C-alpha cells in the first residue's frame, strides 16, 4: 500500500506541474481538506479548485527531495516556486503530510516556509 500511495501522490504532482487542476482533483476525495498550518484551511474540492486557480497563476515548479510513506500517509519534503500576482518567482520549502482513503488523497497538512 505504501508504494501505491507514493505513486498516487507522484501522479497528482505531475498533474499540478502540467497545470491540470482537474486531473489532480480526480485523485482526491470529495471531502478533501487542505490545511496550511498557521494560515488557512480549505474544505472540499471546490475550495481547493478556487485556491489553485488563484494561487497557481502558472504551474508551480517544485522538487520532491524526500518521499516517505507508511500505511495511509505520505510525507513529501521539498522546494516549490510560485509566481506571485506581480509575476515574480517566490521560493518556499515545504513539508506536506498527506492522508489517503481508498486510493484517493483525503487530506493535506502543509508546512510552508518562504526560502
TrEMBL record:
Pfam family for this entry, one: SnoaL_2
Protein's UniProt name: Nuclear transport factor 2 family protein
Q: Which residues form the SnoaL-like domain?
A: 16-106
Q: Which InterPro entries match?
A: NTF2-like_dom_sf (IPR032710), SnoaL-like (IPR037401)
Q: Which organism is it from?
A: Pedobacter kyonggii
